[in-house]
């Protein structure tokens, strides 16, 4: 029997949503766990230790914000919020509390699956890592936290390096804004989008000094990728 790609826990009181996500995720090779309220969701997370949790905010027995806090305290840091609430302050609050992404209902299933894949790739790269990443003539040495172009070291700030490393680990793949900001500035979500634009601009300028190519591409309304 083929080993599942990863285990995903869906905490949502809408049976139709759980069924849709279970069918879609299952077809892609994920092991899917379900819970219809906060109490069962926290219990399932404790027992099965899923790699990713999909959390609805409007649960019948407890607000999703408090569930997220409980999950964070238990060490479950890979949590994507799924909600019909589309308030910007609400999003900031949840991302600042530790959610790695926020998806608003109704949602595109293809985009939803893409965000699942990105979240799990980021988790895998952070836990495993590799000694060296090579892309577009640049060499990123993870153990040294250094970047070279044709053996010449590129002077980057710590945050510029972290941003480039994250993009390079998933080159040619779009990383949503929310993943980048929650990974790089987990405690400053209110200003994180401004920080991200600033560092993208600085990083592009430094990379452009070594190559004529536009390496970092903006995907409107979604995120960035190393082209």
From TrEMBL:
Residues 7-120 form the Response regulatory domain. It holds the Pfam family Trans_reg_C. Gene3D superfamilies: 3.40.50.2300, 6.10.250.690, Winged helix-like DNA-binding domain superfamily/Winged helix DNA-binding domain (1.10.10.10). SUPFAM superfamilies: CheY-like. InterPro entries: CheY-like_superfamily, OmpR/PhoB-type_DNA-bd, Sig_transdc_resp-reg_receiver, WalR-like, WH-like_DNA-bd_sf. Keywords: DNA-binding, Phosphoprotein. SMART domains: REC (SM00448), Trans_reg_C (SM00862). Residues 130-227 form the OmpR/PhoB-type domain. PROSITE patterns: OMPR_PHOB (PS51755), RESPONSE_REGULATORY (PS50110). It comes from the Bacteria. The modification 4-aspartylphosphate is found at residue 56. Residues 130-227 bind DNA. This is DNA-binding response regulator.
